[in-house]
Amino acid sequence: MTRSACAAAAAVLATALLSARPASAQSSYDPRHEWRTLETPHFQLHFHEGEESLARRFAGAAEQAHARLVPILRHAPEERTQLVLSDDVDDANGSATVVPYDIVRLQAVPPESLSVLNDYRDWVQSLVTHEYVHILHMDTIGGIPRAANSIFGKVFVPNGVLPPWMIEGLAVLDESGPGAGRNSSALFDMYARAAVMEGPGLFRIDDVSNQPLDWPGGHLWYLLGGRFMAFLRERYGDGAIADFIQDQGDQVWPYLLNTLSRRHFGGKSLDRLWAEMEVGLRKRYQAQLAEVRGRPVTAPALLTRRGAFVQHPRWSPDGTVVAYFDQGLDERPGLRRVTADGRDLGRAAAVEGNGTLAMLGPGLALVAASDVHREYRIYDDLYLADLDTGERRRVTWGERATDPELWPGDGAAVYVARTGGGEHALRRVRLDGGPPETLFARPGAQIFSPAVSPDGRRIAFELQEGGRRDIVVLEDGSLRKVTDEDAIATGPCWSPDGRWLFFSSERTGIYDVYAWDGSGAIRQVTNVESGAFEPRISPDGKTLLFVTYSRAGYDLATIPLDPAAWLEPSAAVPRPADTGGGAPPVPDYPSHPYRATETLGPTFWFPVYAVDSAGTALGLVTGGGDVLGKHLWLADVYYSLSGRDVDYDVAYLGGWLHPQLTLASSRFVDTAPTPPGQRSQLESVWTPLEVGLAFPTSHLDRSHLITVGWRATLYRSKEAGPSLFRNGTAADLSLGAFYGDALRFTRSISPEEGRLIGLSLRIGDPAVGGDFHYGSARLVGIQYLRIPFTRHVVLGLRASLGLSAGTLGGRLPFELGGVPGTPLLDLLLGTGSPPDQLRGYAAGQFAGSALGNANVELRFPIAEPRRGISTWPVFLRRIHGAFFLDMGTVYVPRQGEGPGFTFRGFDAVRFGAGAELRLEVVLGYYLRTDVRIGLARGLGKLLASPRPGDPYALTQFYVAVGPSF
Length: 965
Fold this sequence. Notes:
Layout (H helix, E strand, L loop, with lengths): L1 H18 L15 E5 L3 E6 L3 H22 L7 E6 L7 E4 L5 E5 L15 H16 L4 H10 L11 H11 L11 H12 L7 H4 L10 H30 L8 H8 L5 H23 L8 E2 L6 E7 L5 E7 L6 E6 L4 E7 L6 E5 L2 E10 L3 E10 L5 E3 L6 E7 L4 E9 L2 E8 L6 E4 L5 E7 L5 E8 L2 E8 L2 E4 L7 E6 L6 E5 L6 E5 L5 E3 L8 E5 L5 E8 L2 E8 L30 E3 L10 E8 L4 E10 L5 E10 L4 E10 L5 E13 L8 E18 L4 E15 L10 E13 L12 E12 L9 E13 L7 E13 L7 E3 L6 H7 L16 E3 L1 E14 L3 E2 L5 E18 L18 E14 L3 E14 L14 E7 L4
């Protein structure tokens, strides 16, 4: 049990220190980085080589955020906040946590053109402000939680376990000054307008409090949370919000949100306030749509009806096919094609991440895709994708390239390169090889969506500079502005004859398509109620293709290109003046080489009550880790009351090395094997040292891992008497190899394509320092298959084989049996089903020196109730079921015979079958798991002839938590 306690503490610490980073295949920072630290009055900012200039901008923005936000939220942290700035992911993001200390992690990349973060005056200021709101919010702790933290370390954070819409909504509220940020974004406003005005109305508060299944998914936390907090500010003021936060930080039971709401927000529950916000939004959007309908409304023909994330459409040169990037909720992302008359041609190539593209022909595209680069980074690069076969050929390597566009007629392409330090460059490269050429770059400027004119003389692109996003044209080395206004303009493209430049702008508060004729005159091409983005003109010049939007998400639409129907554009709506303090200062703070020891000390401790083989044990667990994850450590020490021993468990994880290093040492009391009928004997099991090295090879859609290790364990009997086990030292070498490409999507009930394969070997021999000869091998394979023509019906297949030889005191290394059925313990310890299952038999019923096991499950969705009670931390998301067939056998050596293996034939295989009803629940807003209610029947040895009776077979009812496999 102490090992489980230490593992649970390790999970908490690792999550706090590393897992708060943006989701990716990464496990830690690149150990090749050289880090320095900037010291400011309220922050320590850690940055690696190449990022000092940007780090100083972030340091100034952080101090500016501190000065602005502390009076609003009425809290200042007692400790300096740790900021970590890294440039290893081509995705604008950040994260924050206050456990075990205040940490903000920042990615050194500006948002993309149509990111929901694209409305900013200064992306550095917006990013650090948003994340620092989280710190001030979650770090507000008082009352009994504060007193407990003064004893145990910062482990009780009542403001950190709120519904995600409340945590993110507060940060959205203050992430930018007026007229910028997600609460002012026309893109986000479009999401809210569609959510309110289409379908059954606004998403319920219980659904948004958990993990929504429908588009826009997790964006709802920011979208509606930000608007709800703005609603509360407008009605009750910043003081009421700050009082709510202070009150919440005092709570021992942190889920009394409606009680606190009534106390601070006019005696009203959050549910009632949510409904009142919806009424206000509906009135606002009705007035906005009435204004749109005052002029002819564009009625496009839908080319796709997929919803979710459909973007970056491109015509093939012959105009017969449109390719686009699709990142839906039901399958893996990739390029799809549709004919000009709307016939779906299906997915053409799997593409992770970016998805911007250019078309070379109906069956060939140049696409930007994301993948892991040198194991610790996720970069975008250009590939030539065959849309008929799905095969890809790399064009750039580590170029961090996005937004490709073909150069007319000479086998080259232009694209945007992220050059480090938050900078961009417009570059040109030949597709048949050669170094790239920089066409335009300017310090502090962001570049997006280049479009080359048909004659190759002009390049239009988006330029974000000085707090504004405009369309510009580069010709003969000179820039000319197409737009020069507060509105965000995006997605330029040229007409086939080069006369018109089309683009999208939110100058009226709704994104529409506009056209510029080169003389300075601008015409409004569309007048839509939702939004119109990424215009593209058909090669014959007769059809305008663009991305549109509905409550279901994005889709492609077309209209005839008729200049006579175009409108005079309305004047751009001016943005409010920036009251956020202006551009952040760049002070000359001192810096020094990073020192891991400053954040490495113990950060928490807990008393531990455990049970070992002797009986009760009492102790404590503690741990720590530096902010970069170079060193993580955990230790527990306890006294076994019956065993009369002081035992311990210590683990160390070194992220400073590649391969990753693990060290461990432990001692505990166990039970030694004894002859039949004899009383169990206690023994001391001491592992002075266990060493492991992990060699990962990661991709966004698959991963490989090789592990090697060595350990030595000393076994010493604590009692006199007969035993099957002699004292001695077991030393062994281990090798593991793992591969996984199993994928699960938003609406999946389980992984539904791909596989997991694992092989582990362990060999003990005096040659590596021990007294025993033994060995074991274990092979496990899992395959997931979606049943064709169904929605998320999955066939899951699992097979495992275990073999052992030699002896380690007569211990049998493999167990087989049913589900223990201890759901609360499963949930707390993160266990669930045993790795090898034979349902319909008692848990651990069979043990042996060899094992064969196979499981077949047919998994199918049943219902999507998506129901909770207000903001209670329990939510029933979905119901699904499974029929299963288990089979397995173990080889049990005869008495006096050491572990080994003799094949006894398939007539020794036992079977079990049954069904499970699975409730997919969300606990505490963030933990999604399955509660499995099962009925299984042991069927005995079905292949034996004649078939014998089986005294071990059961009709078994059980409840378990977590997936079966």
